[in-house]
């Protein structure tokens, strides 16, 4: 498995609302079209209203690359910049866990 944790900081409350709408539209397309994207979870951060955390888990690195090549993801990557003041990305090397069964 291959994963990411991404922390986004929005410019202001208006930008956060627009970013959340973009995330919702993109998430629908990910759910409908990406069977190898195992988890694509978006969280608000308690006490930090402008921050969002994404947790993404893919079957493997090929699944991540397929995700990144999707038109809806490329549109998200381009459009998101207008709403953000910061992005931090951590690539994750899966060790163990509960909740996702994957056959190789």
Rg over CA atoms, rounded to whole Å, is: 14 Å
Task: Give the helix tally.
Answer: 3
CATH architecture label: 2-Layer Sandwich
Major sheet details: 4 strands, antiparallel
User: What is the domain tally?
Assistant: 1
Please give the number of β-strands.
4
How far from one another are the termini?
10 Å
SSE run: EHEEHHE
User: Helix proportion of residues, in percent?
Assistant: 25-40%
Mean pLDDT: 94
Briefly, what CATH class? Answer: Alpha Beta
Strand content: 35-45%
Overall 3D geometry?
Answer: globular
The CATH topology is given as Alpha-Beta Plaits
Low-confidence stretches: none
Structural class: alpha+beta
Trace the largest sheet across and list its strands. Answer: 2-3-1-4
Organism: Streptomyces humicola
GO molecular function: monooxygenase activity
Domain ABM: 2-94
Keywords: Monooxygenase, Oxidoreductase
How is this fold's topology laid out?
Elements: E1 2-10, H1 13-33, E2 37-45, E3 48-58, H2 61-69, H3 71-79, E4 84-93
Antiparallel strand pairs: 1-3, 1-4, 2-3
Helix pairs in contact: 1-3
Structural commentary:
With 104 residues, this protein is an alpha+beta fold. It has a single domain (2-93), classed as Alpha-Beta Plaits. The protein has 3 helices and 4 strands. It has helices at 13-33, 61-69, 71-79, and strands at 2-10, 37-45, 48-58, 84-93. It has a 4-stranded antiparallel β-sheet with strand order 2-3-1-4. α1 (13-33) packs antiparallel against α3. It is globular. The N and C termini lie close together (10 Å). Keywords: Monooxygenase, Oxidoreductase.
């Amino acid at each position: 498995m291959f994963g990411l944790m991404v922390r986004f900081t929005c410019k202001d409350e208006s930008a956060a609302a627009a970013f959340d709408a973009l995330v919702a539209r993109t998430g629908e397309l990910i759910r409908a079209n990406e069977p190898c994207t195992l988890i694509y979870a978006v969280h608000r951060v308690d006490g930090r209203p402008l921050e969002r955390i994404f947790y993404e888990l893919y079957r493997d690195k090929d699944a991540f690359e397929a995700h990144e090549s999707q038109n809806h993801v490329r549109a998200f990557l381009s459009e998101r910049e207008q709403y953000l003041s910061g992005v931090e990305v951590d690539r994750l090397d899966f060790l163990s866990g509960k909740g996702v069964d994957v056959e190789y």
